[in-house]
Amino acid sequence: MISRKDSVRVTVSATALAIGLALSAPAFAQTDATAPQDAAGGQPAEAEQDEIVVTGFRESLSDALAIKRKEVGVVDTITAEDVGKFPDSNLAESMQRLPGVAITRGDGGEGKTISVRGLGAQFTRVKLNGMEGASSAGSSDIRSGYVSSRSFDFSTFASELFSSLTVRKTMSADIEEGSLGATVDLQTPRPLAAAQDFTLAVSAQGTYDDLRRKFSPRVTGLISKKFLDDTFGVSASVAWTKRYTREEGWSAVDVIQGRLNRFCSPVGFAPQSPGNSALNGTTAANCSTGNPRLPNTTTNNANYALVDSTGTFIPRSPRLVRSDQDYSRFGATVTLEARPDDYTRFALDGLFSRYDVTRSDQTITALSFSRNAGQHGSAETSVLEAERDPNGTLLYGRFNGVDLTNDLTYSKYTTTFSQVNLSGSRDFGGFQLDGYIGMSRTIYDKPVRTQIATFANNVNNFSFDFRGDRRFPTINWGVDVDNPANFGFGPPSADGTVNGTLAMQRSRDESNNLTAELNGSLDLVEGVKFRAGGSYREAEYQRWSRDRVTQNLAPGLPTGTTIAQLTTPIGDFGRSLPVDTISSWAAPDYAKFNSVFNFENQTGAYALNPPQLGSLKETVKGGYAMFDFAGDLFVPLRGNLGVRYVHTTQQGFGAINGAPTTLTRSYEDWLPSATLTFDVTDKLILRLAAAKVMTRPELGDLIPGNVSIAQNTRTVSAGNFLLNPIRAKTADISLEYYFGKTGIIAIGGFYKDIDSFIQTRQINVPFSQTGLPLSLLAGSGNTADTEFTFSTKNNTPGGPLKGVEVNIQSGFEFLPGFLSNLGALANFTYADSDISYCNDAACQAPIQAALVNLSKYTANGTLYYEDSKFSIRASGSWRDNFLLRVPSGRAGSDVQGNISAFFVDATASYQLTPSVQIRLEAQNLTNQELGFYVDSNREDSLYSTYSGRKFSAGVALKF
Predict the structure, then answer these.
(1) What are phi and psi of 740, to 5 degrees?
(2) How far apart are CA 41 and CA 46, in angstroms?
(3) Which positions ≥6 away from 507 have C-beta within 8 Å?
(4) Is the pLDDT confidence value at 50 over 50?
(5) Where are the alpha helices (DSSP H) in 86-173?
(6) How far apart are alpha carbons 593 and 557 in whole angstroms?
(7) What is the C-alpha separation between 797 and 37, in angstroms, rounded?
(8) pTM
(9) pLDDT category, 629, cuts 50, 70, 90?
(10) Whole-angstrom Cα distance, residue 159 to residue 27?
(11) Do 250 and 318 touch, CB atoms closer than 8 A?
(12) Distance CA 602, CA 607 (A)
């Protein structure tokens, strides 16, 4: 840490803390109302003076503790130095350092969404400069799904754009409702908090991805200026990143019972499977045309009976996957701030972010196991060898008559976020007013999503083998998949055999939000303040999509054109994987296919279907009244008591059974809350809090109908306008002991009684039983009898959630010599829940299981060293396994889950001069697997990928 004797005097404060926004730029302590108090909890310490001292990461920890200490509720904060100096790609990765916060990772292993105390993204409310924010982003085809409507995808924002991140874990009446887990406040810089008239900081960084073997640039900057005798200020910040990521691994897509689609029985086995079919060429001697049955031997019959069984569980579509994502992320903030006198403040904030992604998901897949006899699936597949473990998992299988596909899904999407809000406050002496009005818009536009697949049908000697590694199989494809000539592309055969797939889709989601709020507070008597306010919020979410599946119209190759001319080898595959596998295969090339068929023009056979439209408009009117108080009850006491009332009106538009439909509903909530904070001693604080809270369903889930069909994976999802909010009663207790400048030992308990829950209900039924028109299947190769996985969301019984958080951090100033520059942070969270999940239409026999996305144990730790020139730190983040879906939706399997994970990151920096700093970073040093499983007992491998390590070097300049 830089001593005061050797310090560099600067005049930058909370706003210019965004110099920490530069990847490696030093940050500065705060000088506003959140300045640290002295050890006795009295007046602000020396940091309140006009000039402040660059004291680095250690001082930022002290500032964060000062903010936490003065709050009434349970709050954790990261200041700009923490954000800027952690080796994080985005906000989610910065926030996982806080107690009780865990992240879900997306493409390339980057942080995507957060859960707080086990409650996922949909239960966490995010506010940007005081206004509710939402951001949408896509996900790779190998994992599917995207974040939309209320949820916040942190990957769309660079962490450097914000001067502080605050997680509020307890509620009070003045905090807008909508959070069951936590409210996250993200604050951009404030120019008048600076101690100097002018500040400029820039940084540049290069990141090397060892799996993609590419360098990625990153540039950030900040400028801040004060005018008119420090009564008016302007600040602006920018952050731009270009990143090349890669993820490789294996996916089962699903795990199914062997009897689901049947297999081909040996000659003479009774009953014969499949039955004779002149169209398919199925006879007593042949599974299909040119595909003979196995001889009638004891071994063949035993292997067939073992696999063709409801007690055997096999991968639905075993495949190797590679997902390459090229993205650019640009963000900018601007603030105009005015303080014409000591009692008045105005601020105009603007925030913009654009996240552009081009993604290529390439897979090589054995399709037969996911198809029935009508689709030439596993009913035409013979079992050569098989080995099953006692729980029913098929560890090893070798087969004849397997259809393979080389599949490319090429996507482009852009997330654009913009927000502007005006805030102001006035102190009239004993009476204060504050308020704001703001607007925001999020547009998620996906103009391109094209799937191209070439096929190799009736391949013999295909096998998968889990006997060496239960998470990742060894696969023998039975054919040289690196040779394009072994694959074909064209129209279906006369018997319906699919020989090629071409499917296109484009979609657009848009969210518009308007918020206005006015608050007043009145000093009643000494130590008692009455506060009241009202708010109006309007949110409108629109979804638009068009698609075209041309599987049965896949054209034949022009004369003289070969598959080799339309494919590109997938090379250098599998370097980070735990087992030996193929290093390349011949995959469709998007540009080459388009140059031949010109499907991008979306005309003729490639014209998209008419658009499907849906929207949800929500209006919320609310108000609150509360008392803040401070006094003595044996020990100093402070707290609040209040109630919040909200009235919600929702109007949804969509198609139900093909007919445009508009539905309207409304409901109201009374949300009381109370918080007591006892300053037991000048170092020991006890906090108690209780509240009633609610979280509304995702806007997209409320759109009537809102049917989404994926023909290639045969899944259907639909909205449910009648979803009710999730409501809960909460209680918290926290005991915190503060010592030294950066020391705290805190333990807290929390309890949430969830009255109702929103559960994804999933069943597997023939398409004819979904109630959807059969015309939607046109051109897909699927029929009315094809089994689809149908899912929708419903309100179901809830259950209790309880847990404990432990947080310890300290600098080691008590150690001798250079060891006094060491310090450590550590936190641990235990959370347990017992949620009722419906397993049938009437919910007569619910399943009791943990809350989805809840890890029972999470832990984070950082060890750091910092002196006047050199700084180094290593951070570890561990998250226990958690459930993804209950029930799993598959017969014989109860749940889907995510395996535990441990990520290690490190960073080091050296201050060459007071204005120049160099920095090195490393991310994901453990090359952690991202893995999913099916069934709590068998834990069959569903998904296993690796994203490699990232190494960065950068320089920062400060003027």
Answers:
(1) 60, -160
(2) 13
(3) 446, 449, 543, 544, 545, 546
(4) no
(5) 91-95
(6) 10
(7) 45
(8) 0.85
(9) very high
(10) 13
(11) yes
(12) 4
Split at pLDDT 50, 70, 90, the class of 756 is confident
Is the pLDDT confidence value at 153 over 60?
Answer: yes
135 vs 696, which has greater pLDDT?
A: 696
* Token pair listed for 523: 């000093």
- Give the CA distances from residue 758 to residues 16, 183, 650, 670, in Å, rounded to whole numbers and listed in that order: 42, 20, 17, 20
Q: Is 392 left (phi over 0), alpha (psi -120 to 50) or beta?
A: left
Containing 62, the helix (H) or strand (E) segment is: helix 56-70
- Where are the alpha helices (H) located in 203-292, listed in sequence order? none
CA within 13 Å, CB half, 85: 31
Q: Report CA dihedral (770, 774, 775, 776) to the nearest 10 degrees.
A: 40
C-alpha torsion angle, residues 431, 436, 437, 443 (rounded to 10): -160
* Cα distances (Å, whole numbers) of residue 100 to 103, 120, 517, 860: 10, 12, 30, 9
Residue 344, burial from CB neighbour count under 10 angstroms (0-12, 13-18, 19+) = middle
Concatenating the DSSP letter of every residue in 514-581 gives: EEEEEEEEEEEETTEEEEEEEEEEEEEEEEEEEEEE-GGGPPPPPTT--GGGGEEEE-STTTTSSS--
Omega before residue 271 within 30° of 0, cis = yes
* Stretch (H or E) spanning 317: none
Distance in angstroms (rounded) separating the CA atoms of residues 799 and 199: 52
> Side chain identity at 356, as an amino acid letter?
D
Structural contact between residues 171 and 693, judged by C-beta atoms closer than 8 angstroms: yes
d(CA 120, CA 112): 12
Q: Which amino acid is at 139?
A: S
Which positions ≥6 away from 769 have C-beta within 8 Å?
Answer: none
Residue 888 CB-half CA count within 13 A:
23
Decide: 766 and 785 in contact? Cβ < 8 Å.
Answer: yes
Output the six-digit token pair for 748.
Answer: 């807290």
Structure tokens of 198?
A: 């002018």
In the block, tokens 């068009």 appear at 546
Q: Please count the CA atoms within 13 angstroms of the CA of 921 that sit on its side-chain side.
A: 24
CB atoms within 10 A of CB 110: 23
150: its two tokens = 């209320």
pLDDT in tens, 856-898: 999 999 999 999 899 998 989 899 999 988 888 788 999 999 9
Q: Which two tokens stand for residue 617?
A: 């408009």
Among residues 886, 862, 856, which one has the least CA distance to residue 874? 862
Rounded Cα–Cα distance for residues 108 and 142 (Å): 12
CA distance to 77, 638, 733, per residue, from 73 (Å):
12, 10, 10
End-to-end CA distance of the chain: 20
Cα 929 from Cα 438, distance rounded (Å): 41
pLDDT at 33 over 80: no
How far is Cα 563 from Cα 589, in angstroms, rounded to an integer? 10
Q: Which of 58-67, 94-103, 277-286 has the lowest mean pLDDT?
A: 94-103
Query: pLDDT band at 657, cuts 50/70/90?
Result: low
**Which amino acid makes up residue 931?**
G
- CA 759 to CA 887: how far, in whole Å? 9
